[in-house]
Design goal:
Layout: E1 6-10, H1 15-26, E2 33-37, H2 41-49, E3 57-59, E4 64-66, H3 68-79
Parallel strand pairs: 1-2
Antiparallel strand pairs: 1-3, 3-4
Helix pairs in contact: 1-3
Length: 86
């Protein structure tokens, strides 16, 4: 992961994960967020290592935000100018 890049842990068939992915695309954040599908062993291991138990989950380098509401709130902070260095 590059510095300043967030990681979205998600599942393709999970509606809350789809909501988070849509938000990322709608706000053109794709270049700042790495998509990590937890169906792949490496992504699942990283997600669990960070304390993951639900998707979507957004790792910001310090905290794992879990669940659609928490992820969307964190993404909104990224969108709002001057509120986030990520």
């Amino acid at each position: 992961m590059t510095s300043g890049t967030l990681e979205l842990f998600h599942r393709i068939a999970d509606p809350p994960s789809a909501e988070a992915r849509r938000y990322i695309v709608d706000y053109a954040l794709e270049d700042r967020i790495a998509f990590r599908n937890v169906e792949f062993p490496e992504a699942a291991a990283d997600w669990r290592r960070l304390g993951g138990h639900s998707t979507p989950a957004l790792w910001d380098g310090t905290h794992l935000h879990q669940g659609a509401q928490a992820v969307l709130a964190r993404l909104q902070a990224v969108v709002n100018l001057g509120r986030d260095g990520a």
